[in-house]
């Protein structure tokens, strides 16, 4: 039946034989009969025969292998006979490209938010426990610190503690540490027992903050929490944002 699947598809549509039509579609889809050379012709035939499952498969196949398909005789013939259909496929190709870029943007954005959250975890780890392994020679029974941001944060904290310029004089490192501390305070569930420096001070400072800045911080906190799905976990809480 495989070699006659296309002819039988046309006949089953013309004479309204649904079960034969479904079987022809199944043969074409599951037997690997659709290739870059014939997909354009099969796509047009599927549209003519009202075979949505087959036409959808062909449409996706063309988007996935467009570079190879666009140089086939079938594509050139369709451009001449059905220019509107060609424009629709090209539009679909462009829309798919936009969707891919948007997906990648969201993935990259989520990765940044996850890194920020992990940095907040590392900050709590440093201030609460004191990292015993970061930037030190490990003993036999010790394992490396699990927080990738630990070493960088420790260096930033040391700089912040001894810097003479500070934020007011424009030190970019101190400004970054200031932002880290403020972000922590907005994620911290209980500033009364928190060991991170200035946690309570930042919570009180928020009352005097401009509404525009407050909105920006709230959006950032919600995105970080959502990216990690951490509501209710130790140290941090969405309720404190």
TrEMBL record:
Provide this UniProt record's keywords sorted from A to Z: Metal-binding, Ubl conjugation pathway, Zinc, Zinc-finger
Molecular-function GO terms, alphabetical = calmodulin binding; zinc ion binding
Q: Which domain of life is it from?
A: Eukaryota
Q: Which residues form the TAZ-type domain?
A: 106-202
Recorded hits in Gene3D superfamilies, A to Z, give: 1.25.40.420, TAZ domain
Q: Which residues form a coiled coil?
A: none
Q: Which InterPro entries match?
A: BT1/2/3/4/5, TAZ_dom_sf, Znf_TAZ
* Biological process per Gene Ontology, one example term: response to hormone
Protein name, as recorded: Btbpoz and taz domain-containing protein 4
Q: Which organism is it from?
A: Nicotiana attenuata (Coyote tobacco)
């Amino acid at each position: 039946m495989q070699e006659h699947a296309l002819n039988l598809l046309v006949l089953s549509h013309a004479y309204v034989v649904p079960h034969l039509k479904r079987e022809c579609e199944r043969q074409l889809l599951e037997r690997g009969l659709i290739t870059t050379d014939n997909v354009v012709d099969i796509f047009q035939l599927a549209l003519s025969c009202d075979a949505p499952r087959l036409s959808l498969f062909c449409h996706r196949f063309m988007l996935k292998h467009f570079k190879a398909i666009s140089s086939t005789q079938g594509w050139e013939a369709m451009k001449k006979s059905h220019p509107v259909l060609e424009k629709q496929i090209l539009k679909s190709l462009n829309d798919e490209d936009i969707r891919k870029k948007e997906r990648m943007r969201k993935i990259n954005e989520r990765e940044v938010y996850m890194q920020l959250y992990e940095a907040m975890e590392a900050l709590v780890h440093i201030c609460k426990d004191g990292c015993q392994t970061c930037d030190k020679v490990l003993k036999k029974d010790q394992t490396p610190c699990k927080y990738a941001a630990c070493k960088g944060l420790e260096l930033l904290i040391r700089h912040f503690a001894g810097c003479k310029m500070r934020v007011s004089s424009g030190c970019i490192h101190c400004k970054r540490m200031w932002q880290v501390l403020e972000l922590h305070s907005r994620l911290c569930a209980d500033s009364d027992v928190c060991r991170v420096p200035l946690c309570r001070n930042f919570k009180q400072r928020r009352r005097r903050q401009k509404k525009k800045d407050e909105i920006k911080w709230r959006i950032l906190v919600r995105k970080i929490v959502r990216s990690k799905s951490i509501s209710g976990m130790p140290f941090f809480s969405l309720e404190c944002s």
